[in-house]
Amino acid sequence: MSSENSQTKWGQFIPLVTVFxxxxxxxxxxxxxxxxxxxxxxxxxxxxxLVSVAFYIAYTVGSLLYxxxxxxxxxxxxxxxxxxxxxxLGLVISALGTLxxxxxxxxxxxxxxxxxLFIVGLGFSLQQTVANPLAIxxxxxxxxxxxxxLAGGINNFGTTIGPLIVSxxxxxxxxxxxxxxxxESVKVPYLILGAAFIAVAxxxxxxxxPNHPPLEEGVVEEVAGAKxxxxxxxxxxxxxxxxxxxxxxxxxxxxxxxxxxxxxxxFLTHNIAPYVSLYWASLMIGRWSGAVEAFTDxxxxxxxxxxxxxxxAFAVFLGVNAFMGHDLAPFYVYxxxxxxxxxxxxxxxxxxxxxxxxxxxxxxxALLTGMATTGMVSxxxxxxxxxxxxxxxxxxxxxxxxxxxxxxxxxxxxLIMMIMGGGIVSLIQGVVADATNIKIxxxxxxxxxxxxxxxxxxxxxxxxxxxxDFDKKISGGH
Length: 478
Prior knowledge:
Blueprint: H1 10-40, H2 45-48, H3 50-73, H4 77-81, H5 83-99, H6 101-107, H7 110-137, H8 144-171, H9 187-205, H10 214-217, H11 234-255, H12 257-263, H13 273-290, H14 299-323, H15 334-348, H16 352-372, H17 375-383, H18 385-389, H19 392-401, H20 408-417, H21 421-435, H22 438-441, H23 443-465, H24 470-473
Helix pairs in contact: 1-7, 1-8, 1-9, 3-7, 3-20, 3-21, 5-7, 5-9, 6-7, 6-9, 7-8, 7-20, 8-13, 8-19, 11-19, 11-20, 11-21, 11-23, 13-14, 13-15, 14-15, 15-16, 16-17, 16-19, 16-23
């Protein structure tokens, strides 16, 4: 691609981010389904985390199917189908998964519910394999990470409203909440979601998105050498574990939050949604802040927008919750915590390795604070983990595929495979919670963040040895 001198192709980028929205909407809505299913099917905390396992393990199965199909046909499946066609196919697969919610709800079958979520995740796996490198390709390489962050911000608009809408569909209005948990109430919102998947598949099919973007044709190798596989790059191998643990801590922190609010703080199930929404809105807040470089190269404007963007995102969260009739009083103080995010973001100077290190350390502090405190202080601490997870995906993804050249798509698929960490780490935390308590179980997240900090430190040297220095490479955009 014409790389450094090109502009972000907004006409193509905007249709693309619709799929990012859906990923967030469904992923966060799972956190509402967990306490609903736990009550309706009388599950333990460990068993309730099978919702996360079924959804996120589908990413791994989908990636393995992708690799298998490519080997059998002796060609890359996405290359044959095209990026745009692959996105549409992924949406159709996810739509088929939502259809299972109807018989599952009517028969009260937990395994059938999990099967539906699994198929939805299977479609998302194909979409993610295509959409992440495509978001980077639709503009100059130096702002690829920021473009991925912006797409993540749209993803987290979905995570912010998803729990609220699904909770409303299940429990009704706040003033007239239905305290009787019924799995039958989940079928209608998911059937509507399936119809939306089909509508967007058609939209993308007729959009200007490229079927064969420049990234697919192969980027010039940044490193001399005859590597024959993406797995020969240490930044990718370590990055795969980093993605596994990052998605793990992001998802497990949220999926175990309802149990903490109910057991330790006495919340009723139908009052949990605003706090789950706040957690996922925190990711939106951080990603809106981290995406400003995609809009301007002016450093002064970037600094100003770094302060404005996160509070605009916070205002979206407050506005949506006000519209849904929730009490906003408990959330205003959260505006002060956002300052920590802004300072860390500015301190990173846009370097993905530095940002990963700083935010991983802040994630550790947030979890330890939540474990050491009680009441609303602990709630704010746990939800602030969302702030510090917000830009980790693009940081890890960018670092892991840097220097892969024509093996970027292969590396992307391997990274998407590791999204299964969202299910596995959630399950591990559920097991620890059953053996001890919910608070102590958050030590699992601390361990995840510790590795991310190590990866941030280690990968800098690995990439520098390959001639890749992000301090120099990205300085033009910061």
